[in-house]
User: What shape does this take?
Amino acid sequence: MVSFTAPKAPAGSAPPLAVTFANTLVATRGKVRDTLTTPDDLTAWLAVNVDATGAGAPGAAIDEADLTRFRALRDAIRAVLHAFVDGEPAPAAEVEQINEASAAAPHWPVLTAGATGYAVSRRTDRAPVPAALAALAHDTADLLTGPLAADLRACHGPGCVQFFVKDHPRRQWCGSGCGNRARAARHYHRQRGHSA
Assistant: This one.
């Protein structure tokens, strides 16, 4: 039996799991780079982000085929998130891919009582890899249909490919680096316009 916890963060804290997963594709100096290039990269990412017993632990049987499946799901999630933030129809093939991953690991909630109150974790009887894929797909569905959907944005910083959940009315970028680059670019264009 596999146990996993997909973090559901309120606005102002850690981004939803689906956004964190989509953001494993990054842009550095204008070049898009994949941070999940090896099974070890995926294993490390799962260990930090998807608390799936066995799925993210070192020594788990994550291979190239699993890496391909996770990257394909990530690309489907990115396509659906892009369509959502751009107000376009969702691409049917990518939605189906997310739904297939979601259906691969039926799960149920387990209530636990602790000294500080109650907590809910999810359990599944599926293998760790399908369980982790399903956790990512479930979080994507929850994000797009939940209260954070209205605040989902694509960063428009120069060359950025990240998503974020807007947690402040004035927030425009995924992080301060993109904000600084955008302000520097505006300043440069204003200065250049005055000197011309």
